[in-house]
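Cross-check.
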Amino acid sequence: MSMGRFANPADQRSGLEVVRDWNGVAHVVLRSTKGASARVSLHGGQVVSWRNDRGEELLFTSSKAIFKPPNAMRGGIQMCFPQFGYSGTLERHGFARNRIWTLDDEHPPINHNDNGSKVSVDLILKPSEDDLKCWPHWYAFVFDGFEFRLRVSLSKDGDLSLVSRIRNVNGKPFSFSFAYHTYLSVSDISEVRIEGLETLDYLDNLSHKERFTEQGDAITFESEVDRVYVSSPNAVAVLDHEKKHSFVIRKEGLPDVVVWNPWEKKSKTMVDFGDEEYKQMLCVDAAAVERAITLKPGEEWTGKLELSAVSSTNCSDHLDYPVSI
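Predicted model, tokenized:
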């Protein structure tokens, strides 16, 4: 299989290869010069692993995850498009995470200045006939109604970045919602807090999307949480006291943050999730959920995500950095 074009051809020396899982699905493995790694599956364009330079896995994957298309694997980072949750007529979280993507040999350039410090791979998803039939905007239209391009990059320091670009190449406008559904691995959910969302309004999915205002100095966890924080800042932090490190989440083009943990009762109802695994995971998703994104013919939308794992003592310094992708 051809690897297509890389963001920086010289970065191939850092380690970038295609392997296959036991279902025959291709995975692209990225390795930084300092030893960090990431793995991207062509099934769903899903990031299924992100490890630091010590080999520690930073993303959560359930021990009961089903690794068989067409279902998305429970964990990693899922591409939720053109729908998030059950907010429309499509399958939950849309179809992008359940389709087979291809390597993008003809990706348009992304303006950046990384001085060869990242290794990247580009993927593309185009709609099938079945996709267009189930998405009302494109019923009876030609099959190339949208292009979804995804670039996944790993910096030399192990920061993981994703850039999604969705273009309307049809003759009619269409609307969609989007999320990077991100399962973070944590030591103990009761010892974790989120900073950067205090005083914000949120939609509570456990209360029929009723709107509330966050009252705490930080978000902590004592029961099930399923919220959409709206008009959020471009940087938030997830602090893990036991591991003594923090995830810094930076984003562009994504106004919302979804926070989810199923807690004990709901965990026992999910066939692809262990009864006690809610203690070791937390979903914090950069998203565009409250208001749909509408693209006119020829328009393109870009949504960027950058994840860093840093020492908790230095966390506040990283919140001020702009997205570097």
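The radius of gyration is 19 Å. The first strand starts at residue 16 and ends at 20. Passed to J.P. for a second look.
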